Amino acid sequence: MKAAAFDLAVPEDISDAATLLAGEDRRAMAGGQSLGPMLNLRATRPAWIVPLTGIAALHGAEQTSDAITLGAATTHAALADGRTPDLEGGVLARIAQGIAYRAVRNRGTIGGSLCHADPAADWLTTLTALDAVVLTTTRAVPLEGFVTGAYRTLLVQGEIVRAIRIPKPATGFHWRYHKLCRKPGEFAHAMAACLATTDGIRLAIGAVGGPPLLLTGDHVSLAGAEAVLGFLDPVDRCIQLEAVSRVLPA
Amino acid sequence: MDGVQSNGEGVGRSVPRKEDDRYLRGRGLFIADIRPQGTQDLAFVRAPVAHARVTAIRKPAGFEHCVFTAADLMGVLPITAVSGLPGFKQSSQLVLANGRVRHVGEAVAVCVADTRAEAEDIAELVEVDYEEMPAVSDMLAGMAVDAPRLHEGWTDNAFLSTRVDIGEASVRTNAAIVVRRTLRTARQHMAPIEGRGLVVQWDRRLEQLVMHSSTQMPHIVRTGLAECLGLPQEAVRIIAPDVGGGFGYKGILLPEEVVAGHLAMRLGHPIRWIEDRRESLTGGANCREHHYELTAYAHADGRLIALDCEAHVDAGAYSIYPFSACLEAAQVASILPGPYDFEAYRCSTWSVATNKPPILPYRGVARAGVAYAMETMIDAIAREAGLEPHEVRLRNLIPPEAMPFDNITNKHFDSGDYPQCLRRVVDAIDVPAFRARQRQATGPVRLGLGMAIFCEQAAHGTSVYAGWGIPMVPGFEQAQARMSPDGGLELRVGIQSHGQGLETTLAQVAHSILGVPIARMRVVHGDTGVTPYSTGTWGSRCMVMAGGAVAEACTQLAHRIARIGAHLLQCSVADVVVGDGEVRGPTGSVSIETVARTFYLRPQDLPEDVDGGGLDVTAGYKPERDSGTFSYAAHACTVSVDTRSGEIKLLDYAICEDGGVLVNPMIADGQVIGGVAQGIGTALYEEMAFDAFGQPSAATLADYSIPGATEIPVLRIDHMETPSPYTRFGQKGIGEGGAIGPPAAIANAVNDALAGIGARVDRLPITAARIVTAVMAARA
Ligand SMILES: Cc1cc2nc3c(=O)[nH]c(=O)nc-3n(C[C@H](O)[C@H](O)[C@H](O)COP(=O)(O)OP(=O)(O)OC[C@H]3O[C@@H](n4cnc5c(N)ncnc54)[C@H](O)[C@@H]3O)c2cc1C
């Protein structure tokens, strides 16, 4: 199928983009790797498309002693190639390397992935475990809670994600991420990510039909996971628990 | 003068593929690359429901002139494909639905506009009223007495039911082992990388409808299209340009071809339709769906006595042209016994009409399912007998000394050493070493070994197809060998090459006879305007049939060349030899190029007895016996199965294939590898589920999972070369075998891995969820 007709409004900068996106029937486009197929399937048909990747302020990365901040338009490929700052042990690069395949990684962005809010998206689950914060044109929101349901976020019309801030865990942290998918680079049917530091432990379980489920502290265990996965059918639950068991610390 | 003389690039050589240069550089000419000036694109309005009465179609105001429905197609006939098999019930497929739709994706109306996007805009505005009817979405339920009927006047939903009962029934009482299985394979979509498509226009000068179509069988499409449009066949020309994969998906006369052909004549400008992925997935999942109830009877030592089978094939809504709705099920009954020798056989089959896209024969046709069924039973016997699976196979295979062999269903096995073929893969896998490792693996990750041995009947001819009585019965295959005045050669064949490498292998055949360098040859194919009639590319027939025809045409051409050459050399024809691009006599030689130049440009130098037909020969060919060549293969693989996550890894995969004389061993390997990739899809990935309303589960390739490079292990391929006694060079068809073996071998390996915990999966594809379900059931 071909997309329904739309017009293109190319913004000068981020505030221009926010203005262009303020009205009805407008849609931001970053890498187009999720929006493109939806346009072609006519699952969405905005009158105007506002491309974001030309905006300098959405690119680049910043690193302080306690956090890494990545521009929303940072591509999966830039992360996979180590062209951005990373957490100790190449945590972010390894996540990015497992997303789709190269052609998609070249265009797909970290911001687009979070805004699209596919329940099985890699960044959504992993960055939830890493306790990331979404920086928009108007506010800073913890990623936990940013996604309100499958393909739904807190963003309001005209609000743009500028960057993602990822806190640096204290040295010597435990990090494991595992996804089960039929083929490498496919959306997963089960996924879990676990971060354990001297400050505590966080377990995010993804690909469960909505936002990832986050467990912290004493709730982080197989039994704790089983308790929150009761809504899944027994086979899916069994497979999810296997993903969880592969990320929990020994 | 005598036969094969030159072989630098000839039969048996792994010559690089001539066609790859343009493919690898992205310079092929595929259907969507063609857009003549003034072309308008089509978008079809397709049924969103599986079974409904269409009570009204409203064209959007202002667009009446560019929307067409069945009511507008005056004089266009429906597509009918009968089978001569007794009891066959006929369906007739209107090219645009009129009053009733029978599967999701069936075309109801068509819109014409300057671009596809605009045509889709109009299609969205067409209003269709559907009055939904209960759908038949499962073939077993479809045979219930109270199931809704798809076609008026049918007593049940079976296009055809068949029954064979061979051998003495009482031998079953001798069985020490009786095993039963219920097996199911999934409905698949063939997913060629390029979908279907066409560009058609009326040629006013030739008074001919010229259609470019991405098809495997241009001549058959011409015959069928002309019939539907009421045109004489000389008024239709079909040209298949580069075709990006077929696998059977393009072995059909399409309703879209008929609609577009009609519109091109009516509107007077070129018309184009390019199928998109969504259309092909939602309306084109059309193959492989079988259900088996099997009982095998064997002696305690694993020797098979008898096999009983009830097989259902989900044939979809209509009988397609030219293969009909019942080829698949009829094949099941005749090929299930495979390469095994036993005493008694019963098989009942039903080709069930359902509210799904009409079934098409996919690479390996019924065999992928049949081999899965048969090889599952052999493993089941082995488990009961406490024997290694290969041991049981060796006790039942047709021995080489029995060849040629007519089996229990009268299939004529032309040649081969099946036990040796199996032993070679057993050795390649090193079964004892694997068993030792397997015994160690008692944790959650289990290991398994599976194998399959099967045959591939190819190039079936008149004697086989006359029996089916379908619209197409292949006879003599023809080829034209045409020399140019400077000694180059054009080979014109009615088949179509779309990945098989026939532009190379047919040139190799000609090279073996004439010695013309293959760089100086052009293989012209897929164009009814310039090639002899042919049923096209299907059934692994081209190397045998078109290869034989090219050899015949070149041999006759060589005789004509010899006569002119002998005259130029001033010697007797009996004393010359044609080969290596020249005519050699006792005292010297003259090049074929000189012979050609003489014929075309210096006729004053020709001998008195020159053949007026010149250096342009069309010749026909049929093998000495046309019941089909029997290539065969053994596949063996080892897998690991994670019983917690359901993950399956293919650890090792060994193949021994006997394709007779290999015209180009490299291309033969390529055919095996590509086929295995598709077989892995059948085994582990591909499934188009339909819900109770007949809705397909996938509209994109994110939902319909096909294997890619990362899912294909390194395949270890070994060859045997037992020549066919009946074909020109001893070659056999091998285009499909790769796709046949993997479901059987992989399913057996997975079930071998699960046997230790008492679990089993009896359904394809074997997904993670199915493994976990089986493991949970075994533990409960
Ligand atoms: C074949 C294929 C396989 C894939 N496999 C995976 C996979 O395994 N794992 C995975 O995680 N993902 C996968 N993806 C998705 C991919 O990661 C996409 O890149 C991602 O989902 C969207 O990013 P994008 O930049 O392309 O966003 P776009 O498609 O351009 O936009 C997506 C949505 O986000 C909105 N948006 C984008 N940027 C912003 C912004 N800065 N502020 C506000 N709104 C914004 C858009 O309006 C749109 O609604 C796959 C995609 C494809 C095509």
Give a verbal description of the structure.
- The complex is a heterodimer of chains A (250) and B (780).
- Chain A is of the alpha+beta class.
- Chain A is built from 9 helices and 14 strands.
- In chain A, the strands form 4 sheets. A 5-stranded antiparallel β-sheet of chain A has the order 4-5-10-6-7, with helices on one face. In chain A, strands 11-12-13-14 form a 4-stranded antiparallel β-sheet, with helices on both faces.
- Chain A starts with 6 loop residues before the first strand and ends with a helix.
- The model of chain A has no long low-confidence stretch (mean pLDDT 97).
- Chain B folds into 3 domains: 156 residues, Aldehyde oxidase/xanthine dehydrogenase, molybdopterin binding domain (Aldehyde Oxidoreductase, domain 4), CATH 3.30.365.10; 182 residues, Aldehyde oxidase/xanthine dehydrogenase, a/b hammerhead (Aldehyde Oxidoreductase, domain 3, Alpha-Beta Complex); 328 residues, 2-Layer Sandwich (Aldehyde Oxidoreductase, domain 4), CATH 3.30.365.10.
- Chain B has a 7-stranded mixed β-sheet. Chain B has a 5-stranded mixed β-sheet with strand order 7-17-16-15-8. Chain B has a 4-stranded mixed β-sheet with strand order 20-28-29-30, sandwiched between helices.
- The structure holds flavin-adenine dinucleotide (FAD).
- The site of flavin-adenine dinucleotide has 32 residues of chain A, from strand 2, helix 5, helix 6 and helix 7.
CATH superfamily of the largest domain in chain B: Aldehyde oxidase/xanthine dehydrogenase, molybdopterin binding domain
Question: How many domains of chain A, as an integer?
Answer: 3
Q: How many domains in all of chain B?
A: 3
In round numbers, the mean pLDDT of chain B is: 96
Taken as a percent bin, the fraction of beta residues of chain B is 15-25%
Mean pLDDT of chain A: 97
Number of contiguous helices of chain A: 9
Which consecutive residue ranges of chain B, at least 5 long each, have pLDDT under 50? 1-5
Q: How many strands of chain B? A: 30
Query: Main sheet of chain B: which strands, in order across?
Result: 3-5-1-13-10-11-12
